[in-house]
Design goal:
The chain is mostly helical and 222 residues long. It contains eleven helices and no strands. It is elongated and about 70 Å long.
Length: 222
């Protein structure tokens, strides 16, 4: 008499697949976290897949298995770091859709600074790449050029016409704001030494938002 088929096997295999997927996801996360620190500290040229593996405390072969090349790891690090930024900006514009232009731009400035405080590594990554022209820099700039930039430039133009924003080329002012808003977080140790408070302190971040607003916004014509 034939034995009845064991129904548990497909379910067991599904559980095993999910376990392997979970382990693979955790391994990728460990690799990206280690690579972020390596690239932010040493730059692309100073980082190797072996140094990433050593920092992540995993076999070197796993880095190669998941990403194949150092460039692929670097690109994944950038994409991962930018997700939070773009999602925050898009959420801000979406929630305030239809609001006054000044409210929208002030909200954008605030959101950008909050994300910069949470993700100072982005500034460090950029600092290593902007020293010269390269395919990596071109790729990096393409990733940053989200749909929110043109909308931001249009808001600047509207507020300039109303006398509520400082004069100047909108694109120039936009990147001037980015530098003023984010650089303090990349210089955290020096900032803390000079003024006695960490730039990641919540009270500092709020003061920084206010100071940046004073630099760029105007009360408008009487």
């Amino acid at each position: 008499m034939a034995k009845p088929a064991q129904k548990e096997e497909p379910q067991e295999e599904l559980v095993n697949v999910r376990r392997r997927q979970g382990r693979a996801k955790k391994t990728r996360e460990k690799i990206l976290a280690a690579a972020l620190t390596e690239f932010a500290t040493l730059g692309f040229e100073g980082t190797t897949t072996r140094s990433i593996a050593e920092r992540a405390k995993i076999p070197h072969g796993l880095v190669v298995y998941h990403f194949e090349t150092k460039l692929n790891v670097w690109q994944a690090v950038i994409e991962n770091a930018l997700i939070d930024f773009h999602e925050e900006i898009e959420r801000t514009y979406r929630e305030l859709k239809g609001s006054d232009s000044e409210i929208l731009l002030r909200a954008y400035h605030r959101a950008f600074i909050l994300v910069s405080a949470r993700k100072p590594e982005l500034n460090w990554l950029f600092s290593h790449e902007v020293a010269g022209q390269s395919e990596r820099l071109s790729w990096l700039l393409d990733q940053v050029q989200g749909s929110d930039i043109e909308q931001t430039l249009n808001l600047i133009r509207e507020l300039q016409a109303a006398g509520k924003y400082i004069e100047g080329d909108p694109a120039h002012l936009h990147f001037l704001f980015i530098g003023a808003a984010s650089r303090v977080f990349a210089l955290a140790p020096e900032i803390e030494y000079r003024i006695g408070v960490s730039p990641f302190d919540e009270s500092f971040v709020e003061r920084h938002i206010e100071l940046c607003a004073r630099l760029f916004f105007r009360d408008g014509p009487s």
